[in-house]
Sequence to fold (320 residues):
Amino acid sequence: METELSADDIFDYLHFDLGSAMCSKQITKEHSRSERLKDATSGSEVNPFTVKKRDTATALLYKMVPLPWYVSMQCFGDDILASNLVHTILPYHRPLTDRDIFIVQDYVRVTSDNDGSHLDETWFFTYNYDVDHHYFAPRVGFVRGKMKYQGMVGFLGDGGKTRLTWLVDFDFRGTLPTSFMNAVLVNLMIYPVSVAEKTREYLQEKKSKVAAATSSAVVEDLTSAVELELPDLKAKLAEMKAMIESKDDELRRKDDELRRKDDELRRKDVELKCKDEEMTKQEAELKCTILAKDDELEDKDKEIMELRRRLPRKVEEEEL
Fold:
């Protein structure tokens, strides 16, 4: 199948889901109509080993597959034959043997940085295969299933979309009901579709968490910054308060000094006004004195002129 999701997005989800098996359980829950198939795929599972790096991940998976079906047996003397007939002779029932698997899961993202390619493309592959180990030897009461060459490849397809190719090779080892096998194959085939759906949900949830974490981190950073800077702020505020009070006292002193100087200037202004009035009065008196002197000089000048006019006549009279 092809999807608009990038290979990086899908690999990030698979990388995140590895070890939790949330996707496979959710697929069976959402797409399976058979309650028995749900019971068969809901067996216990455990990852005894998981290691993850940025572009790789490896895990061991042990999973039990309980089979809730029963087979009908027919007895013919010493022979016991399996039969699907409804009516049996001397019916004898026994449960199907449960299955289990023990596999290695390898997830690898290939980029131009780690494969030496000059192409700016990212693709990935997952690979599941069974492995034998004496710590996980086949258990009594279970048939060990076999898995080889199973996995998914995601690479850039046509139109810039990511093409997912899902390879399945699993052997349950033994005869199982056809309905069960068909249901298993159907669920396996829709696995890529479910991966794409879960990747979208994963990205949306991741985006929401990032937004919430970002806002929370901003508030926490602000709170921490305020808490860290609060003592310094208090010290600075106390210093600023003392400085303001000192400046205020200095301004008061300067204001008082300016007020005193203003009063002194007002007194000097009054004195200057008084002196100006006195000088104006003296000037008026001086003008009156000058005018009187001018009149007196004018009278004297007239007397002199009159004496000069009379003097020649007296001289002439004396000569005669």
About this structure: Residues 73-92 have pLDDT under 50 and may be disordered. The first strand starts at residue 2 and ends at 3. The domain at 2-189 is CATH 3.30.530 (Alpha-D-Glucose-1,6-Bisphosphate; Chain A, domain 4). The chain is about 55% helix and 25% strand.
